[in-house]
Amino acid sequence: MHIDLITVVPGLLEGPFSHSILKRAEEKGIATVRIHNLRDYATGKQKQVDDYAFGGGAGMVLMIEPIARCIEALQKERVYDEIIYMTPDGETFDQPMANTLSQKKNLLILCGHYKGVDQRVRDAFITKEISIGDYVLSGGELAAAVVADALIRLIPGVLNDETSALTDSFQDNLLAPPVYTRPAVYEGREVPEVLLSGHEAKISQWRFEASVRRTQEKRPDLLKDSGWE
Asked: Which CATH number, 3.40.50.300, 1.10.1040.10, 1.20.1250.20, 1.10.1270.20, labels domain 169-223?
């Protein structure tokens, strides 16, 4: 997978992609993330990328011209399966969407900033708009990092077997069951006996039942359309 990220504050994105699983994915040649500074596509001494909104109102708006130059330059290098805009009014990101997008080859993500982007950018270039929740961030950079992380970790070969994404919360609309490690007893608190039994079928059944119980307690909304009720 190749992901291009367009931003006005590239420093916000450099950290998340230089550590841990995301870094290892790139070292293995499984995923590549490239960060593009929008100001590199601006003109004039000030490298201006934003301006006041027509009609007045507080806040600045990202201009169409530098964004168009950046996207068009990147499109000359590859064909994108999706050109994504991170915005509070986009479709809410969830695990099924992550599963689908993780199967794509090339993605371009535009990070919103200030009061957003000129609507003509959305009309002309954007194929998918995504929000990571019903709240507003200072910009789309952190949201884009969340999306990229969620996608890349699903690609086969990125995670080791013991951290398989197939057992994560929200797969099959269930939360993951409780997990335990050594010691087996800590200040009178014991690990469930079945997990120490070595009986794979019984352990699998316990984990499934624990997942259902946890989902019922914490996120009953997930069960409505899952068939687990």
From this structure: 1.10.1270.20
